[in-house]
Amino acid sequence: MQDQHWSTLVGEQRRRGLSRLRFSAFVEEQFRQHYAGLSYPKVRPLLVLAALGVIVITGLGVAEHSVSAVTATFGLAVMMPLLMATLIASYQPERHLIYQHLLAVSALCVGLIVTSVTLRAGLHGTPYFFGAEIAWIFTVWAILGLRFWHAAAISCTISIAYAWGLAHWNFGSQEALFTTVMLLGANGIGALACFEFEAICRRSFIESRRLNDLAERDGLTGLYNRRAYNNYMERIWRQSRRDEGQLTIMLIDIDHFKAFNDFYGHQAGDDALKRVAEVIAMGAQRPLDFAARFGGEEFALVLYGPVNEFGRDLPGQIRQRIEELGIANARSSAHSCLTVSIGVAIVMPGAERSLAGAIQMADEALYQAKEEGRNRVVVKESRLTHIETGRFRASRRAVG
């Protein structure tokens, strides 16, 4: 997914995400985290109020001997921990899936309690408690921020439980008909509102991601730009340190590109950059791989994991494929065709290694490739390389 433009995904995701309320796997995961985040501010007060309600109702019931030991135990030993766990999960965005499931279970339990209270009140001649049932069904559909299919499952379960109670306790046919019609109407209106809201959220989400993607892309080559590269490197460096995983940084520079551009013209230069970028983008195949253009003729390819996985020499393949493009370059001293020099740094992020040092290692490898005649790959590994900070900067400017 990293090497695809969001702009090219919009049509597909609209079809999949708005008709069935589901995107493809990678996009769906991002949307669910975003959608859960929308509900946090309005759900937290409800969770606190629900917890206080459980305490007050249970306390009064025990004091007046109107609540059984089983009911009191369920309220304090099941509902309270469930509500508190949901509240805690709402402050941990990375656990959005757990939060959604906890919220769904909490909503279902509260709904079944409301159903029980409403049915018992109806048996004692106070049918107006039915308003609480309708109010909670609307809350599930429109306020809790549950995804449509979660809300549908919960609301239908609550409604079926109420219908079962009507039949089990032999409510009058007129009352049963009235409440059934009201339940159907409440669920119909709630379902329509929930579906439309989620569809709008999905449309807004995909459009915003497309706009963000366009802002992070290089307009000529379609690769990510320098700003996106900087943001990505900080994130992937932290992740590599947590996972103790290998990180490979490739800096790629087109040989004698300024001379090529001056001799063949800017249009030919732009065409060459696009074709080179296509080859580099093919190297970013895994989910956490990343290809970017710094500007001019400089590119970066960052791989999360081993370079030679499955026996492939990716830097060498990129160099060879660019050479095989056969773009004539009469101004090059390295080859008759357009070529690239590639500096590779293979690092294991840790406390003794900084991100700046890792990038500098790749930069030094690139300088060495140029210094040794260009059209080649130089690889440096952190466990074998000692970086002399700033040693090559002036020399690299001279080599160009």
Quick overview:
With 400 residues, the protein is an alpha+beta fold. The protein is 64% helix and 8% strand.
Keywords:
about 400 residues; alpha+beta; Alpha-Beta Plaits; 2 domains; five-stranded mixed sheet; 13 helices; about 10% strand; elongated; disordered C terminus
How would you sum up this structure, described in words?
64% of the residues lie in helices and 8% in strands. The protein has a 5-stranded mixed beta sheet with strand order 2-3-1-4-5, with helices on both faces. The protein is of the alpha+beta class and 400 residues long. It has 2 domains: 6-214, no CATH class; 226-399, Reverse transcriptase/Diguanylate cyclase domain (Alpha-Beta Plaits).
State the strand order across the main sheet: 2-3-1-4-5
Work out the radius of gyration.
31 Å
How many separate structural domains? 2
Helix content: 55-70%
Strand content is 5-15%
The largest sheet is: 5 strands, mixed
Uncertain segments are: 387-399
Shape descriptor:
elongated
What value does the average pLDDT take? 85
- The number of helical runs is 13
Structural classification: alpha+beta
How far the N terminus sits from the C terminus, by CA atoms, comes to 34 Å
Quick one: how many beta strands?
Answer: 5
Helix and strand run? HHHHHHHHEHHEEHEHEH
Itemize the secondary structure elements and their pairings.
Layout (H helix, E strand, L loop, with lengths): L5 H14 L5 H39 L5 H21 L6 H28 L6 H13 L5 H21 L4 H43 L10 H18 L3 E8 L2 H8 L1 H16 L8 E6 L2 E7 L9 H11 L15 E8 L7 H17 L5 E5 L11 H7 L1
Parallel strand pairs: 4-5
Antiparallel strand pairs: 1-3, 1-4, 2-3
